[in-house]
Structures are given as structure tokens and as C-alpha cells.
Amino acid sequence: MHVMIHLRFLSGADVDDLAITDAEVIAAVESVVGAHGRGETVFEPRTHLVPDNGGAGHFNILRGHVSTLGEHGLSGVKVVGDFVPNYLRGLPSELALMTVYDPTTGVPLAIMDATLITEVRTGAMTAVGAKYLARPDAKVLGHVGARGTAFANVTMLDSLFPLAEIRVTSRRPESRDAFAARLREVTTTPVRAVATADEAYDQADILVEASRLEKPIPLLRTASVRPGAFVVPYGTVSAVELDLLDVMDKVVVDDWRESRSGRFGALRAHVDTGRLTEESLYAEIGEIVSGAKPGRETPDERILFWHRGLSILDVALAHLILTRAEAAGTGTMLRYR
Questions:
Q1: What are the residues whose beta carbons fall under 8 Å from the beta carbon of 143, sequence distance 6 or more?
Q2: CA of 31: how far to CAs of 40, 150, 167, 337, in Å?
Q3: How far apart are CA 29 and CA 239, in angstroms?
Q4: How does strand 165-169 pair with strand 58-66?
């Protein structure tokens, strides 16, 4: 017996047409983070493919399964390129492709442009972390980095907190000015483009480091972290000082096994030198979202959240997109076999 199999292809335009909101993205990410805390997910740490391309960029491969999605759960694989010089060609620095599968048969269900998923899921993870770890009265957001995930970081945080000022910066003046202008189109919160990271972080309540460095440079300085601050460093290449963790009351990660893997990450040197260990770690964010551990307990706590990007977030958002696309009849059905 031969069974004909079709799968759904969703282009970037198809995904955009679904008009999925930030609130829906944050809710999906918060739900899957809670599932991770309850042991209802399966995933492997990301792997890297570094082509012989003169250092132009590399690929990340993420694989995950979420048992709570749909009747049988959903499995997926995402390949995302990380090519910082792409802006010179008018291309996003991160382009991604996602495939999702029926975990009971292995049948592929969909192929989709996952560039939007990559952008918004990172911002949503920042927002979910802030929801549990930042002071609810946070007023000043300092953000370093203007491409890729930066827009979702800022807009999603802006939707959750009564911000009085947003400060943004990046290496190129034209980049930070354009980013600030784009933000002003969607928020009434005052947005200021500043020349340096020190200016962005001065007296900030929420400090996000999303830089695109080629080599380690301490942009987020330990002295900038005041009592009560919530700090999120997640650039691929470290932009923090080695003594940053010395002033933190709590250090939270998305997944400790993921934190130990690979050659990249904001706190890679801290893990490699033993400054961050399983014993010194306060919690994984899933433990906090699921209620197993408390998040912020006092207004003066300095809390750092390091998230490297979990494949289960991609799977959760792919499920949201696929479900919406099926209901709307969006996409192109392709014969697989």
C-alpha cells in the first residue's frame, strides 16, 4: 500500500500574512518554558556548522520536541545562519528554515521560513524572563544592538513594563538612528539613540546586551549594574566583564546543559573558567515559570538571565504558525511522496 504524503510550505510572506501578535508569541513561549520546567520537552543542545568561508558566518542546528502541543506533541528541526556582514548585501544577519514532524510516525508536516520565529522567540524569551525576574516598576531600558532580535526585545519589554525611557545604541550611528526611528513608529515611550553602551546602561533598570561582535569587548560593564537591575546578556560573542557575576544575587539560564555546550555565548568564558557552575546557578527559567522556584523576591536583587535560544521555543512557535495556517488555508501544499 502506498500512502501519498503532502506537507505545507510557508514562505516568509505566508507567515507575515497570519499577523500573529506579540502577545500570542509571549504566551506560547511562556507556556513551553513552563513545560520545560515540568519535564515535558525533549531537546538536544544546538550544534554548529562553521563553513570554510573566511569567517563570514556559521550555521546553528536546533532540534526539539514538545509533548504538550497538539494530540501527540510536535517535533522540529531549525537551521539558522548567523552571518553578521549580511547587512552589506541588504540581507538579514539571521535567515532560518524550520521543518516540523509528527513524532508518532516521522511524517514531515511543514517546511517554513523561520526567520520571524528566530527574531520574535528571542525577544519573547527576554520578555518572559523579565516578567518573572525584573522589577515590575522598571522605568528605564538600556539596549545594545539594533539588528535581528533587537526590535522584538524592545517592543515586547515595552508592552510589559511602564517604561519612561528606552535607550538604544549600536556600533554604526546610521544603524542605531534607524532602529530608534523604527521604534518611535510603534511606541509612545520616549526612545533615545545614544552613542555608547555606557550611556545606554547608565542608571537603567533593564539592561539587554544583544550586540553582534566579532571578538570579545566589554560593552556591558559590571559597574553599570545597580541594585534592582535585571541584566540580559546574550550576544554570540561575549560583551561582558569576567567579574559581572560577582555582583549578581541570582543567575538564571534557559537550560544548564545548553549553557555548557558549544563555543559561543555571552557567558562562555564564565562557564569555561568555573565562574558559573551548576552549584552557583540559581535556577533554569523553566523552574521559575512552573512555580518550582521563586523569581525576584526583593526589589534590590541584581538578577542576570542568560538565554542561548532553545529549540523548544522554535517548535512552540512553529506549532502556533502551522495551526493558524491550517485554519486559514495559508501556504502551498507540496507532494512529499
A1: 150, 153, 154, 166, 167, 168, 169, 200, 208, 210
A2: 11, 22, 30, 34
A3: 26
A4: unpaired
Q: Number of C-alpha atoms within 13 angstroms, CB side, residue 257?
A: 9
In the block, cell 526590535 appears at: 151
For residue 88, the tally of other CB atoms under 10 A from its CB is: 7
Q: Decide if pLDDT at 24 tops 90.
A: yes
User: What pTM, to 2 d.p., does this model score?
Assistant: 0.91
Q: Label the pairing between strands 332-335 and 6-10.
A: antiparallel
* pLDDT band, very low/low/confident/very high, at 62 (cuts 50, 70, 90): very high
Kindly report the number of other CB atoms within 10 A of residue 47's CB atom: 12
Residues listed for the chain: 337
pLDDT of residue 270: 79
Q: Give whole-number Cα distances, 261 to 36, 115, 309, in Å.
A: 18, 23, 12
Domains plus CATH for the chain? 6-117+312-335 (3.30.1780.10), 120-308 (3.40.50.720)
Distance of CA 92 to the CA centre of its chain: 16
Question: Helices marked H in 38-138 — which ranges?
Answer: 115-133
In the beta sheet, which residues pair with residue 108?
101
Please, are residues 130 and 167 in contact by the beta-carbon 8 Å criterion? no
Residue 179 — pLDDT band, cuts 50, 70, 90?
Answer: very high
The strand pairing partners of 95, in sequence order, are 81
Supply the pLDDT for residue 119.
85
